[in-house]
Amino acid sequence: SVLLLRACLALLASPIYLLSFLGMWEPFCRKVFFPFILDKICVVHDKKSKKHKQELFSNLPDFRGPSGELKLLEIGTGSGSNFQFYPPGCKVTCTDINPNFQQSLSRNMKKNQHLHYEQFLVAAGEDLRQVPSGSMDAVVCTLVLCSVHSVSSTLREVLRVLRPGGAFYFLEHVAAEHSSWKYFWQQVCYPTWKLVFAGCCLTRELWKNLEEAKFSELKIQHISVALPWMPIEPHIVGYGVK
């Protein structure tokens, strides 16, 4: 039944599959579709997850460095929807593998002038070589680990750039309980969803990757963030300390 429903969904999305076969979908998705649709999704997601993010980032000031400054690196900054939750004076370095979010990113920077924006780096989470080792007090990653090529490599880079005692903050959608209908529909949607949404994987059990990473302290909470007609309700939220 999963394969049959996958085929039906692929039929409905056949124009996108055709564009992908012709090599036209990926550049269009990166430059136009994904920045546009992610901006819209983030507006809805931020409303649903606002309390969780406020609680998550409430202790960010506790991780200020010895100088009293808070140097923060955000992986997959996108449109900058997290800026509103960062404390005043925070020095933010933005990274994203996709440089096509300029319009919405500039808009959110202007809205959040309580922050100091250090630089924007075009970089994948698995390769942050432009960021010196041990240079960050905090690293933030929200709705990004679902689409990186290697979660374990990304977490190794996170630990590398963090100073000892620094913290990694995350809020990610994850696989549902395997015996649930939510997981069934995640399996059905998986191939088409991954194609349409720039490599986003619906069934990653990211809490296992985090537990396997070498954090000295790890706090993970499983929550639900319901978005209309979208198979990404199960989430994890928390932080790990190097």
TrEMBL record:
One of its GO terms (molecular function) is S-adenosylmethionine-dependent methyltransferase activity. It comes from the Eukaryota. InterPro entries: Methyltransf_11 (IPR013216), SAM-dependent_MTases_sf (IPR029063), Thiol_S-MT (IPR052356). Residues 73-170 form the Methyltransferase type domain. CDD domains: AdoMet_MTases. SUPFAM superfamilies: S-adenosyl-L-methionine-dependent methyltransferases. This is MET7A protein. The lineage of its organism: Eukaryota, Metazoa, Chordata, Craniata, Vertebrata. The gene is Mettl7a.
